Amino acid sequence: MFTQVQSQMPLIDQLTDERQLLRNLIDHIPDGIYIKDFESRFVVGNTTVAHLMGVTTPDELLGKTDFEFFSPVLASKYYEDEQTVMRTGLPLISQEERTFDSRTGEDGWLLTSKVPWRDRHGQIAGIMGIGRNITELKQAQEALAEAHRELEYRVQDRTLELSHSKAKLERILKNLHSNLTQITQMIQQEGAKTELLMYMEQAQKQFERFN
Fold it and tell me: What CATH code is carried by the domain that includes residue 58?
């Protein structure tokens, strides 16, 4: 018996080393990585996920669900998505979803993928997920969209202003044309010098307004 245990020690040490290697790897990845069982309880979570949920270590996540960390609205959405993946066996890839960062107390965005987690018999036992924080990207997109809307408003206002200026100019030119027509008619008539001077003065005023 002792000899059998001794023969298994190298294998146990190897498995321990591999597990520690995997643990170090996922804890140093900036994306949130997690595995949940069939009831959407955490089986594995990395440091990024733990900090997002407001706990210090990943071990504090084990056996718990999103309902213990997020609002009922957010937790219900996560749960429904995970149950759909487990029920259908179809992955959920690159879905944008709202989240809440317990470190900052602010709402945020994640780009999330969730795939079925299968046991050694090939049966679905839960889900594996990864989420990338895209809050800054979403904020930049919203700022760009707001700037675009503001530019459209400014263009519309300027177009309306130019339209009014054009209409005003057209009225001035129309009046000027009418005055010049009357002047031409009066020149052709005798004894109309006084009226001619009056209309010439009006025409001069129109030119001054135009300039």
Answer: 3.30.450.20
CB 79, CB 86: distance < 8 Å: no
> How do the residues of the chain divide into helix, strand and coil, expressed in percent and rounded to 5?
60, 20, 20
- 45: which strand partners? 34
Q: What is the pTM for the complete model shown? A: 0.65
Yes or no: say if 95 and 125 are a contact pair by the CB < 8 Å rule.
Answer: no
Give the integer Cα–Cα distance in Å for 19 and 13.
10
Do residues 127 and 36 share a domain? yes
Asked if residues 45 and 54 have their Cβ atoms less than 8 Å apart, the reply is no
In tens digits, what is the pLDDT along the chain, a chain of 211 residues?
Answer: 545 545 556 666 676 777 777 777 778 888 999 999 999 999 999 999 999 999 999 999 999 999 999 999 999 999 999 999 999 999 999 999 999 888 788 899 999 999 999 999 999 999 999 999 999 998 898 888 888 888 787 778 777 777 777 777 778 777 767 776 776 666 656 555 566 666 666 766 765 665 5
87 & 125 share domain: yes
What CA–CA distances, in Å, run from 73 to 76, 104, 109? 5, 19, 15
Q: What would the two tokens of residue 106 be?
A: 């602010």
